[in-house]
Amino acid sequence: MKNRNIFLESTIILIIGGIINKVLGFIIRIIYTRIVGAEVIGLYSLVMPTYSLLITVATLALPTTISKLIAEDNHNHVKILSTATILIMAINSIVLILMILSSSFIANTLLHEARSKILIIAMSLTFPIISISSIIKGYFYGKQNMIPNVVSNIIEQVIRGLLIYFLVPLIMAKSEVLAAASLFIFSFIEELVSIFVNMFFLPKNIHINKSSFIPDKYTLKNILSISIPTVSSRIIGNIGYFFEPIILTNLLLFSGYSHNYILVNYGAYNAYSIPILTVPSFFITAISSSLIPEVSRCYQRNNNSIIKRLKEAIIFALIIGISYSIILLFFSKNILNILYNTNLGLNYIKILTPIFPLFYIESILMSFLQAINKAHITMKITIIGVIIKLLVLSSTSLIHIGMYSLILSEIANIFVVVFLNIYYVHKYLKEL
Hints:
By secondary structure, this protein is mainly α. The protein contains 15 helices and no strands. The protein is globular and about 60 Å long.
């Protein structure tokens, strides 16, 4: 009964925090998009796939990894945290140097947008601080103490909102490029504040000494055994996301579409359609974050409550996803107008809305597989999904249907990935 209470309590706390963060995030996004306009949003969206790919490498999936290790081991928390920190700073040093050296090539050759170079350099500077923050957050997830992360996330959003409201108009008056890059600079400030906030919640018995700065080989092996398959899966997914605008831009230009059409519509898809479609994602993130340490602990102890927890998580996710999709089917135009004062991206929302309940359970199923030490399976599923998505995107971009080629590739990816996740979860549940 105690485990059930901890699981539900953790989920509820994260959901409440997620609601507050989502509301703040929407307000901030509305303010930002109205200040900078569609072209700056398009420029920002153009580099986001690169950012997603590199932040995955830089953080090495440590929130999930640390959460799982802390949940399974009650005695070596200092070793886990210190070893993870040393590892992640070494990786970040390499990533940062490589990104600064290759920023011109990525901007000019891959993205065909010289202005994106400044954004690429700005985002690279945020990686080390975000990585350190992710280690601390992973610790609290593993302890199933969600309050520190909720508090720090809310403070982050408040600071972000204030910075955007007061500084972005001034920056926009000088440079549109700097206005787009400012979001990455603000992220550095937010994560730094988040670290200080979380430090107040760390237990008193965590002591750092000289030996803490020497990586523990056994702990390092455990971290890598979990993080490498997990991060490989995410890297593969982000590689697909990285190549998405590259393939889309080049093939649509080849098909006769203008650069302005691509920039505005791809920006609308990422800035308007996807944020509205993924509003319930904070519920799903809350469930997944609580599910990983709970299932890891139960799996370690051969506890039969694993199946029950999975069923609860899936049912909850489907109820949320289906309910929200019904609302979108009838009120998507009103929501888009109220939030962003535009109709851009409305057609994309209408097409994807019936599909997105499946998207919500995808995260639950993958989290479950990671918790039972099957991260290599999620990597396999992700590879297949990315290949299917890029193949569909490449082929449909040449038949002159514009941005709908991206929509069709997204639908294909969701169906394939969810089906494979269901297949493997069912397979391994029979072995428990």
